[in-house]
Amino acid sequence: MNADPLFIEVRCNESTMRGANPHLPYSTEEIVREAVRSHDAGAAIIHWHGRDPDTGGPDNSVETYRAAHEGIRGATDLISKPTLGYISQTGVEDRVKHLRALADDPWLRFDAAAVDFGSLNIDTWDATTRRFTPGDGVYVNSRNDIEAVLRILDDIDTYLTTVVWDIGQIRTAKAFREMGLAQAPTFWELVFTGDSRPSGAGTNLLALQAMVAELPPGEPWQLMCYGGDVLPLAAAAIVLGGHVAIGLGDHDYARFGTPHNGELVGRVAALAETIGRPVATPAQARELLGMRPLQQPL
């Protein structure tokens, strides 16, 4: 088993609605609350989306991202990795405006940006009605847009994490390397999907092995499950030397009642302890990923 410390990423809110769980964060204060809980439970990385504090709808304003990021920075040393947009945003500049706005502040600049290397249908599958809802939800990432984002990240010197939803997107990312655009090595984010989002591979060991086999040897990777429970496959990822992302943004984890994000991170940390793999601090994760150290405020 790989003895490198395990990175745990909390995916605290994505676009999932709160439903019965009051712990899913919408507001800036709630995002910071979940960041602290997750940090204390063992997370090294946080991924988050700006949300309207009342409705939970997307809030893509620079001001919202600045406020939440300032709160995370002030309360933790987590590696902060906001979204580059979802189906609520179109156009490259709209997706990167918050990164650009903070890029010149050594303390407040974002640590990393996650780039999806392909498009996919993102509708929810309703097993009861046997219908997709809404039926026209497409997360569009054209190759021209990917190229433009990669050039911007290089220009503002932002660390790239490489998000792939299938083997073809891994191959696409490697092609961008041949173009001299994608950073290497990178932190690979392997996205599996649950029953409510049948757009990617289900959480089974053979699918995980197929994805890992396509990666460049020796580069770090993590497992996540959008629309489903990542825990059944998390143990395999930990044993294979991978890392794990978990959070209410991906799945409600209602089998545990109404957990907060820190409780979910704690379950992964406990699993790693049982297996015998240490959990990385944010500082260790920065060093192992080749990121710049966290700077002090100006």
TrEMBL record:
Gene3D superfamilies: Aldolase class I
MF-aspect GO terms: 3-keto-5-aminohexanoate cleavage activity; metal ion binding
Entry cofactors: Zn(2+)
Top-rank taxon, per record: Bacteria
Keywords: Metal-binding, Transferase, Zinc
InterPro entries assigned to the protein according to its UniProt record, in alphabetical order: Aldolase_TIM, BKACE
Protein name: 3-keto-5-aminohexanoate cleavage protein
